[in-house]
Design a protein that fits this description.
single chain; alpha+beta; 11-stranded antiparallel beta sheet; elongated; 17 strands; 407 residues
Length: 407
């Protein structure tokens, strides 16, 4: 079980779960996500079980402790084989609480306090969109469809848009499911539409329920009582050749890659979210261990993706690309890696990178000079000996002069 946040009175105001392949065969066939205009999105509970392939998204304006009780109860039921409807229905026992639950094999459901649309797409491609307001809305197991909840946060300059945007986005979800788009791409499009049109735009994040990958802390705020990253703004600039990347706002100072001069590609946050959770033929799932330095995981992911695309799943090539990034200052706070620090699983398109964090807050490892350390130690000893002789000459200068004059 992965916990992406803490419990707090604040909550997500947009929850969505999309299932385009209820058989679980498509690696991008089920996805979900949350965002809000409110602060503290990292304190809005967002849980995913990789083993059991379900997600629990919470929300509402009810008491935080009641929400926690509802979540724990829902998870307990899901881990004991309950479907999404049973898991989400738990929220109705607690005032003001909302739970949205879903997975490729258990369907999707939202329970408690909500304003949502249930979208279903039949085998003959008939799209049905049904509004629900509180209670329980269910997408049964085995069916293609989605559920989207959306309300406006008080203080949002676009307050009052939620009703229209919720309906239009639901219609667009239905069309994309009908037209064969994968769930991960649809969730990314939902983030784009809702952030632009309803202003509920701060991350938050999303998960791929079949492949068990997520955006992690890409968009969540670093500080308490602040908002997450705006999903409708540029997130990063990336070099398409070597994977060099830089996030905003620093990216505003770069137009070309400092390594090879290639024009940088600007990626908006909603596209970065889609890329992060979508498995493609050339995609690589990258895990980083040994350091939690800000930005290290994301940048390592870009470097490894570029290396695999160019050289394949070669530990030597990947370690070389990473070390080049460390040398160029692209990756900071970690030591150079060896090929045995790279765990490659080509069959599952996964790469693990094991870093050693530099001591004493150092940002870069020592220079790799083409001189043996023994030689440097010897030179240092010689320098020290010469220095001592010079000091002795200064101290005993007058005595040596007198001795010379006497002779």
């Amino acid at each position: 079980m992965i916990l992406f946040g803490l419990i707090a009175t604040i909550s997500a105001t947009m929850n969505v779960i999309v299932i385009t392949d209820p058989t679980g065969q498509d690696p991008n066939g089920a996805a979900g996500g949350s965002m809000s205009f409110a602060k503290n999105m990292f304190q809005s509970t967002f849980l995913m079980s990789k083993e059991n392939q379900f997600v629990v998204l919470s929300g509402g304006e009810g008491d935080a402790s009641n929400r926690l009780k509802a979540i724990v109860s829902s998870i307990s039921k899901l881990e004991n084989g309950a479907d999404a409807a049973v898991g989400a229905a738990t929220a109705s026992s607690y005032s003001g609480i909302r739970l949205m639950v879903g997975g490729p094999s258990i369907g999707a459901a939202v329970g408690g306090s909500f304003d949502a649309y249930l979208i279903t797409v039949d085998s003959d491609n008939t799209i049905k969109i049904t509004p629900y307001s509180s209670g329980l809305a269910v997408l049964p197991p085995g069916e293609k469809g989605a559920i989207i909840h959306l309300r406006n946060t008080h203080g949002n300059p676009q307050y009052g848009t939620a009703t229209a945007v919720r309906r239009q986005t639901a219609l667009n979800i239905g069309r994309m499911i009908r037209d064969g788009y994968p769930a991960t791409a649809i969730v990314g499009q939902v983030f784009k539409e809702v952030s632009n049109d309803a202003g509920e735009k701060y991350g938050g994040g999303a998960v791929n329920l079949v492949s068990g990958i997520s955006t992690g802390d890409m968009f969540t705020p670093d500080q308490i009582n602040t908002t997450g990253y705006p999903m409708d703004e540029p997130y990063v600039k990336v070099c398409p050749n070597d994977g060099w990347s830089i996030g905003y706002p620093a990216a505003e100072n770069y137009e070309t890659c400092p390594i090879d001069g290639t024009p940088l590609k600007e990626i908006y946050a909603y596209d970065a979210l889609t890329d992060a959770i979508t498995v493609t033929q050339n995609s690589v799932s990258v895990s980083v261990y040994g350091s939690d330095a800000p930005g290290l995981s994301q940048t390592t992911n870009e470097v490894v993706q570029a290396s695999v695309a160019k050289y394949g799943y070669d530990a030597n090539a990947i370690s070389g690309s990473i070390n080049k990034g460390i040398k160029n200052g692209l990756l900071v706070g970690v030591n150079y890696v060896e090929p045995n620090d790279i765990n490659v699983k080509q069959g599952s398109k996964a790469v693990g990178v094991y870093y050693t964090q530099l001591p004493n807050g150092r940002t870069a490892p020592p220079w790799n000079l083409p001189i043996n350390s023994f030689v440097l130690d010897l030179l240092g000893s010689i320098q020290t000996a010469i220095g001592i002789i010079l000091i002795l000459l200064v101290i005993f200068r007058s005595r040596l002069l007198q001795s010379f004059q006497k002779r």
